[in-house]
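hiii, so i know i said id send this last week but things got crazy w the move. better late than never?? heres the sequnce for the chain we talked about at the cafe, plus the structure i predicted for it. fair warning i was half asleep when i ran it
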Amino acid sequence: MKGKLIGLIVLNLAAAAALGIIAGMYFKHMRNADVSDAVNVSCLQERIALFADTLAADVGVAAIFDNRDTLVYCNSVHDSFPMMSVMKFHQALAVCAWLRETGRTLDTVMEVKPDDLHENTWSPLRDSYPDGGKFSWRELLEYTLGSSDNNVCDILFKCIGGPDAVDRYVRSLGIDDFAIECTEAMMHEDLSCCDRNWTTPLSAVRLLEEFRRTKDKDEYSEFIWNTMAGCRTGQGRIPGGIPDTGVAGDCDKEEIGRGDGDDGDVIGYREWGVDEGEVGCGECDADDEEETGCGDVDRNRVGDEDGDRNGETAVVHKTGTGDLGPDGRIIAVNDIGTVVLPDGGYFSIAVFVSDASCSIQECEAVIAHITRMVYDHALSVR
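okay and structure toks below
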């Protein structure tokens, strides 16, 4: 009996030792994987730095890969950037929360008056309906998220309590390192107000991540996701860096942004009455459609209509574009978004280009080029 007991003890000790060895090998593997991932992200950051440090602009980048690895890069002494129309994503989240809380559906109709539709600002709704009319919340949010309508943005601010209400809601989600204090009208009247709607790139991707995790919880969240998947502005930015979106970006040009900025091609959207790009989106000539992403090239993915993966890559994003500052430099050219890969992997990315002496087209190509580097990294570590 005593011998059997000793035998059992020996067997148990051997089993425990074996389990310990297996566990040790597993955790060693996991530690090595974590170290390898960290090294890979560090190498990506170095490549972005080598590129961005040559540019005549401040550049901020953040990315989160599969809710795990995080990249943050900034070539400026300040890590905050003016959001411009990127803040319409923040606003849409707050608007839908307000609709949810007040029992309003997306199809509830409200009236837009002619006095709400100001001239000399980017407003596709005003161009189509100069006398205003009755519109559903769904339609109004499509104008802000899909077409970046400035008048509609301020109408929505008025309905839910102003920029402060949006700021409070986003902070309630646990997001900080940003501020929303000004309407579009305020920024048009005083360019210095642009700096009062700011974010760090990391704060922007954290908000994207929070949204991605809850995008399927109800019709409001699904609507925002799907609308941003069909965003028609800034096709040469994040979408331009993803190979299978069908958007021809200049992301492979080594000379991007290396000029002296004196080419006379800098265009401010408030000066021209267009937003986001946006050069050519909504106001382009027929000859410019293929190059700028207008016309029929307005989808951000080659997948199913709800923006989810269907064996293809989905791009869900929101752009922002600034005017010329007093020194003739572009205040901001931005894009933030989530890229869903065909195998279900994803990354969220924010690229902000500010105080730029190069043209808007070059700034967009910078965003596309950085996105391509991030995209290639995301594929390499899968």
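btw The radius of gyration is 24 Å. thought thatd interest u
miss u guys!!
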